[in-house]
Design a protein that fits this description.
This protein is mainly beta. About 10% of the residues lie in helices and about 40% in strands. It has 1 helix and 8 strands, in the order ββββββββα. A hairpin with a 5-residue loop joins β3 (about 30-40) and β4 (about 45-55). The longest helix is centred in the C-terminal third of the chain and has 8 residues, at about 85-90. The mean pLDDT is about 75.
């Protein structure tokens, strides 16, 4: 992350907010399952980010993950999501052994 923007020193995952959810699409069967990952950056409690990872065949599909609202700080947009996807994938892959095949 720091290589993308020098203002980002560290990224933290809020494991208590991270959850497996179903997305709706207006049909009874719904749109599928996702993992919502939430966190902060630079150890600032008032910062935030949210990544949505779709589930395909029971596994997280990191190719289609998305940064939902950019990075925020005290309710204001800190960085947009246009260039952060690759860096968040690399960061999140630290927690998975199969990730190296997806980058």
């Amino acid at each position: 992350m720091k290589s993308q923007n020098s203002k980002i020193e560290s990224v933290q995952i809020d494991w208590e907010q991270t959850q497996w959810n179903q997305i709706g699409n207006g049909t009874p069967q719904g749109g599928g399952d996702i993992i919502d990952v939430y966190g902060t950056f630079n150890n600032i409690e008032e910062s935030g980010w949210n990544v949505t990872i779709p589930i395909k065949d029971g596994k997280a599909d990191l190719h289609y993950m998305g940064l939902s609202n950019g990075l925020s700080l005290r309710g204001e947009l800190f960085l947009s999501n246009s260039n952060l996807k690759k860096h968040l994938i690399i960061f999140l892959c630290r927690f998975s052994t199969v990730c190296k095949f997806l980058i």
